[in-house]
Amino acid sequence: MNNNNQLIFRPFVDDSKESHKDLREIFNKYLYHWPLFLLSMLLCLTLAYFYLKQIKPVYHIKAKLSIKDEKNKTASTKAAALEELNISSAPKLVESEMEILKSRPLIRQVVTQLQLWATYTEPANAEDLYSKTPVRFKLLETAAPLKETSLDITINSANRFSLSGPDGKTLDASFKNTLTSSFGRWKLEPTSDVKNYIGKTIRISLQNPEALITQYQYKINTVLNKTAPIVELKIDDLVPERGKDVLNSLIAAYKTFNIADKNKETESTLKFINERLTSLTGELTDVEKDVEGYKSSIGLTDISSQSQFYLDNVQSNDGRLNEVNVQLNVIEGVERYVNSAANSGNAPATIGITDPNLISLVEQLTKLQLQRDKLLAITPENNPIFIPLNRQIKSTKETIKQTIGGIKSSLLATRQQLQLFNSRFESSIKNIPGQERKYVSIKRQQGIKENLYVYLLQKREEVALSYASTLTDAHTVEEAYYEEPQSRKEYPLTVALLLGFLLPVGLIAGRDALRNRILTRKEIETATSAPIICELVQEESKTAIVVLNRDNYAIGEQFRALRTNLLHVYNRKEKGKVILFTSSISGEGKSFVTSNIGASLAISGRKTVVLELDLRRPKISKIFKMDTAGPGLSELLNGDAEKEDVIQPSGIHPNLFVMGSGSIPDNPAELLESEEMESLINELRFEYDNILIDSPPLRLVTDAMILAKMSDITLYLIRQGYTGKPELKFIKQMQEEKKLPNLNLVFNGIQRGKYGYGYNYDYSYYNEKDRKSVVKDYIKDFFKRF
After folding, report:
1. pLDDT over 70 for what percent of the chain?
2. What is the DSSP string of 124-166?
3. Are 180 and 172 in contact (CB under 8 A)?
4. Is residue 92 over pLDDT 60?
5. Above pLDDT 90, what percent of the chain?
6. Residue 504: per-residue pLDDT
7. Are 596 and 547 in contact (CB under 8 A)?
8. CA 785 to CA 511: how far, in whole Å?
9. Which of 415, 429, 749, 777 has the lowest tally of Cβ within 10 angstroms?
10. Max CA separation in the chain (angstroms)
11. DSSP for 489-528?
């Protein structure tokens, strides 16, 4: 019979709803294991409950700091004045200042000032006593680097305490005593709260300050407001008072650093002016004494108008010459700085220099040098970040050298010209009487010194005023504050619910993947082209013959559908059709399906005989509750019994007969290959409409392959969740090699609830009792649902 004419029983499925069907299958698969989900949810929620009991609220402390950003700063009157004095500060970038805020030197000041390396807790309730500690730990002398350790003390009175040592011994001491430990000498100082803790034990935990500084560098976060140069400082802490103190102390330390950094730029200018004033003071005093002595010695009171004219010109010319000398002095200082090999030290002053290009270059060099100094505070010198910065410093110095060369040549030429003018004036003065000429010379020196002295005094006052300024470019917008922490219970509970759901899903999916069993029809159709003639659900029944049981209507109807499909495979009027039932391994339901389809065929009026040819492990006789003491097929094939002695009525229907296996033979394969077996099949073809052969598993023994030669149709059983996926390759091989005639597959033991695959059947159409038992299906076999 052509296999293409087969009618396969399968409920109608709308392809447009295939995706919804897949979702329902997945949902039903996991719904079957509801006890596992319930247990997982309860366990995770219980753990979340105890977790919430243990955790403490975390406070979010914030503060805001305004920093002047020179990138966006417009020129102000004060800035212009400072630029005129050539002592304007280098531009500040908010981004770099944010890094300075978190630098180790500043945080070290905070840790040291607040003694954060010492924490005080009450072991009874694990409460942190930062703001209300009864004692303060004071380290007087360090013998070794402080490591993580703890001290347990009991407050005996307002003046005494007991220290519990690691060896279990107790030391009674006074708050005035100085104690010595491995880390150094220390003492405890009582606070105003000491009376509230009399009789209680306090634990003092000490940490390595350097490690604590690193921790705070990660704990403190800085966030820049893009629309304004305002930096928001954030820190999370279990003790809000400590978090506030940390941020406020950090801001104060930064402001102090900012002022010191700002005034550092004026040190070189102030130092240069003071050195010049010290030298000029002595020179001016000597000149004034010379004038006074000369006038007293000769009794000079006035000079002629001509002498006065020459004197005025000489003084004016000498003033210009002095300015040139000052500029040359400053130029030489700048030249010495740029010629030095080191990249550190104070930048030279540019006071008196009128060339804007040189002033700009020196300012640029100052900015680069300060930027390098700031990076050195937070970054090692061998860091690659210094390479481009050092190149810029070197390039700027080279440009300054070239500029200085031109300026110096110009100043030297000017000085030579001024000196020439002086020579001319001096030759003219020679015509003045000797006393007046000498007086003019002395007076000229006095005027030069006085003008330079007054000029430097004025500059020193201006620079000193800026240097003494306590104004800073950083201003506190909002001091540290905190709000009551919001309840975070929803997060652990949400995580618990999510884990309670995902853990069973992962367990079920992983278990199915490890089992590697066939679960859906699609897996079969993908691996092999053999048609699936029927799908049989798994139902519990008190009897093995479910076709006649009114409580098993669903599977009974499926067996009737299987019978209909078989009758369409061949003409229902044909007699003597041999149907072979086999499978890959034992336990896939061959005997069960064989006996029930035999009963179904018999009920339809077809005379049917079932051959129990699984001679090694016979089951048909037990299903039909037959007497196994009599002869069977093994005796018949050995010639020890007649056919009439082996054929027995099934006791279920007059049209159904059974031939038991008999005793287990030593050579079952040889018996099945004998001529007697072939003769028996040929005789039964004339006597019965259907001959059903229950054979052994094909994967285990060769018996089914022998019987396939005598069969017309092969029904190959696959059991859901039991048959391994590798068996599909074996079935495909059997089909391609055509070793099994008219191969059809029966998908047996389908459990829609457990594996999610299958079709819903309206049991109420057959029996209302099944509708009422829907709820019971979720409760029975409780432990099997895990």
Report:
1. 77
2. TTTEE-TTT-SEEEEEEEESS---SEEEEEEE-SSSEEEEE-T
3. no
4. no
5. 14
6. 86
7. yes
8. 13
9. 777
10. 175
11. THHHHHHHHHHHHHHHHHHHHHHHHHHTB---HHHHHHH-
In the chain, domain spans: 13-57+492-513, 59-257, 264-470, 517-785
**R_g over Cα of the chain:** 53
What confidence tens digit (pLDDT) does each residue in 607-635 have?
999 999 998 889 998 988 888 788 889 99
HSE-CB for 718 with a 13 A CA cutoff: 29
pLDDT at 609: 94
Inter-residue contact 284 to 446 (CB < 8 Å) = yes
Give 517-785's CATH code, choosing from 1.10.150.120, 3.40.50.720, 3.40.50.300, 3.10.450.50: 3.40.50.300
Q: Decide: 474 and 466 in contact? Cβ < 8 Å.
A: no
From residue 144, alpha-carbon distances to 147, 181, 664, 768 in Å are: 9, 10, 89, 87
- CB-CB contact of 153 with 164 (8 Å): yes
- pLDDT tens readout for residues 437-486: 566 666 767 677 777 777 777 776 666 665 555 556 777 888 888 887 76
Reduce the DSSP state of residue 502 to 3 states and report it.
helix
Token pair in block for residue 640: 């020890």
CA distance 631 to 616: 16
Tell me whether residue 517 is exposed, middle or buried, using C-beta atoms within 10 angstroms of its C-beta: 0 to 12, 13 to 18, 19 or more.
middle
Give 3-state DSSP helix, strand, coil % of the chain, rounded to 5. Answer: 55, 15, 30
Q: Which residues of 639-666 are buried (b: 16+ CB within 10 A; e: fewer)?
A: eebeeeebbbebebbebbbbbbbbbebe
As a whole number of angstroms, the distance between CA 222 and CA 625 comes to 85
Q: Which two tokens stand for residue 581?
A: 């039932």
